[in-house]
Task: structure prediction
Amino acid sequence: MGLAPDKGLLVPHSIPEAYSTFRTDEVTPVAPLGGDYKLLELFHGPTYAFKGVALQFLGFLFELILQKGYANGRLTIIGATSGDTGSSAIEGIRGKKGVDCFILYPNNRTSKIQEAQMCSVPDENCHAIALEDAFFDDCQKIVKTLFADQAFHKKHSLGAVNSINWARIVAQIAYYFYAQLKFDEPCHFSVPTGNFGDVLAGWYAKQMGCPCKSLVVATNANDILARFFATGTHTPPPSVVETVTPSMDISVSSNFERFVYHCCGDDDKILKGLMDTFEATGAFTASPEHWEKCKAEMYAGSCQQPQILATIKKWHEKTDYFPTSIEKAIGAATLAEVPEEKNLTDLLDLPKRKNVLVNSLDAVVDFVEAKVGGGKPAAKKAKK
Result:
């Protein structure tokens, strides 16, 4: 970390400072899987989640804008997670001066290690909030509501760590260019998709000149996106299906709005009409013209859980890759032979700072006010 010589501002040294915690100098290496297949490895950050690529960088940006005097030097981060965004955000923001971070996640619906990553951090500026009887969509809805509340937003100088924050998308664009350089010809990117931010970054990279051939929106049983590309109608299922890929267990993808906006010719009136219809009825249907534009930009498909597990097993047997393959896919005996990743498993034995709240907007507001706003105590006492 250094100071700009002219104004004494806190800035990262040519970006690599932000990635000094990664376990490889390449940051996002590309691994050969055989034949034409390669895997872009985005798990070398401190929390083993792809979102660390953007969130390690974002932590420095927050410090920078506060050094410049934004919001009188205080910023309140509120985010939602199904596991990996929260752990990456907390790791990127922990200990940052002038920043308080509140991460909402569905209680008992993240992995034990992901929860430990969020709750074992001792830094007092980070707060992991588990909402009872919630899914990710519930957490995300509360976050969106708080950002739409202008009085609350202004009072606490809110900042975002979810991919609704444009800086998240900007940081992710870079690794599409990097990966494409590993191929002699334009390649196809198949992107596991939940909140649509990662594949949207790929689309922006393509618009900026990255010569990738196509983008594939890969979804699981929660296939609202795949169904839109197949039918032109955007409608979520009655409820979210819990799967072995929880980061994709999302029914309403925030960044999809941005993509639809571009496919509607950057016409905000058309987008507003679609979103208003969606809010009122729970669905919208794109015009044939705009639907065709969407399909021309991306492909989409869904993969059910048996297929996911079979694919993990196939590639593990073929390449001995996937060191964290799950027991359901490769069997307990095979899993037992995989070396333990002690950086992760040791977290399970650390003291935890877990705050359990009822699933309500008021409970979250009360908790934030109690921590940074001098308000009343949270609606439900925090649990250790």
